Structures are given as C-alpha cells and as structure tokens.
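User: quick one, sequence for these tokens?
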C-alpha cells in the first residue's frame, strides 16, 4: 500500500484519481464533482493505493476520512466511501496551453496495473464535465 499526494472521488462507483501539484485544483474539482454530479468523496490530499487482483483501490488515511479542504472556506466534513476501485486517472496541468487538442490515448501505471489517463486544466469551466464524458462514452476511433 502506498500513500500519494492526490485526491479521489467515486462517481457511479467509478473511481476518479486526481493527480497534480499543490494549487492545481484537486480539491476544487472534487467539490464540483460532488456538488454537481453526485460524486462521493473517497480521499482528499492523501490517497492510499492498494492493488488486489489487478485492480487498484483507493482509500483515505483514517485521520482524513470525509474531510475536504475548500480554500477560502476551510475543511468540510462530507459523506465518503471508505474504499473504491479506480477507473480513471486525471493529471491536472497548470495551464491550458499544456493540453493537446487531440491527445493519443494514454495510460497511468501503478504496480503493473494500467488505467486510462487524461490531462486537464482543473479551473476550466468544463473540467468536471470532461471527466464525466471520459467515463460515459467511448472515444471515437480515427
């Protein structure tokens, strides 16, 4: 089991792992997914990852369960799920210019298990919608 700097929510039992440096908007994007898409918090700021039967599971350290840091508001206590399998990894970039218009499919690998990876700018208005779209519909084949 590893402890990484990330955040995670569950949407319709699909785990979304948000990666990015401090200030990239992980918690902010979690809040938008929770409020607008009925996602449920798994972990904020620190995420435990565990692999079992070629599936990656995410959970929060006990001391942080149900806590979401909302800049300018403080730490909120929210409903949470104690563990969720991961289905998508989102790497948050610092600027829109870092995004490719038509990126090739990419994967994120952890302990030999690969998951789909997309890169987004978290403060773009449609960032949450793009995550939901990536989980809802297949990509068109070129």
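Assistant:
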């Amino acid at each position: 089991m590893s402890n990484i700097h990330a955040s995670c929510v569950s949407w319709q039992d699909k785990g979304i792992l948000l990666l990015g440096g401090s200030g990239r908007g992980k918690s902010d994007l979690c809040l938008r997914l929770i409020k607008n898409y009925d996602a449920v918090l798994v972990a904020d700021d620190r995420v435990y990852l565990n692999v079992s039967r070629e599936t990656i599971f995410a959970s929060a350290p006990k001391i942080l369960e149900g806590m979401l840091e909302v800049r300018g508001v403080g730490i909120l206590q929210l409903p949470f799920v104690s563990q969720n399998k991961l289905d998508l990894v989102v790497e948050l970039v610092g600027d829109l210019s870092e995004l490719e218009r038509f990126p090739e499919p990419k994967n994120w690998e952890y302990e030999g298990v690969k998951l789909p990876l997309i890169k987004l700018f978290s403060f773009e208005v449609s960032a949450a919608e793009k995550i939901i779209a990536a989980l809802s519909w297949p990509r068109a084949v070129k």
